[in-house]
Amino acid sequence: MFGANIGTTITALLASIGQSKAAKRTVISHSIFNITGAIVFACLIRPFAAFITYISPSGNEVDVIARQIANAHNPLENLSMQQLNAMYDGQYKQWTDLSK
């Protein structure tokens, strides 16, 4: 999941080449969100994995792996956005203000 989050920032950066200022600001916003979230969760991977295992159904690994991935992805994205809002509220809005 971390690789996918960071990988999509490269795709967005490539897509923004030669585009408007608004498109480039959108890419910056997307990149900050994904990279910051990946860094925070990489530091918390062991307790996060234990939590996901705890809330996921038990059983044969093959049967529950999809549910574990879904259970891990949802908090990753939601908590990343909350963390960004808390840390960069004013600055984040300034960086991504499309009215300038």
TrEMBL record:
Keyword list, A-Z: Membrane, Transmembrane, Transmembrane helix
UniProt superkingdom: Bacteria
The keyword Transmembrane helix is assigned to this record: yes
Record field: transmembrane: 32-55
Keyword match Membrane: yes
NCBIfam families found in the cross-reference section: Na_Pi_symport
Protein's name in the database: Na/Pi symporter
